[in-house]
Amino acid sequence: MDQKYEKHIFICTNQRPAGTRVSCGEAHGLALVAAFKKAILHNGLNVEMRAQRTGCMETCELGPSIVVYPEGVFYGHVQLSDVDEIVSEHLVNNCVVERLKLTF
Hints:
By secondary structure, this protein is of the alpha+beta class. The protein is built from 2 helices and 4 strands.
């Protein structure tokens, strides 16, 4: 089966009640979704790539976290200032942003 998108970016926006385990959504998860969507559109990639929010990916203490498929590359501690670099390096040039890559 052909895939609809060349790359699919999932951004964790999970939020937990105050006083429980840390969560990505508290640290600008929805703002990251908006920033990735804007950058993808700005770079003319909106037909072949998609960014969307997702629930917990169990990388909470390393968040905010995202994962890029089909590669399955996880990025952690992603800030709004990192979005353009991830888009230009990973999405456009297929080069992993090593400084943000999570290893398990």
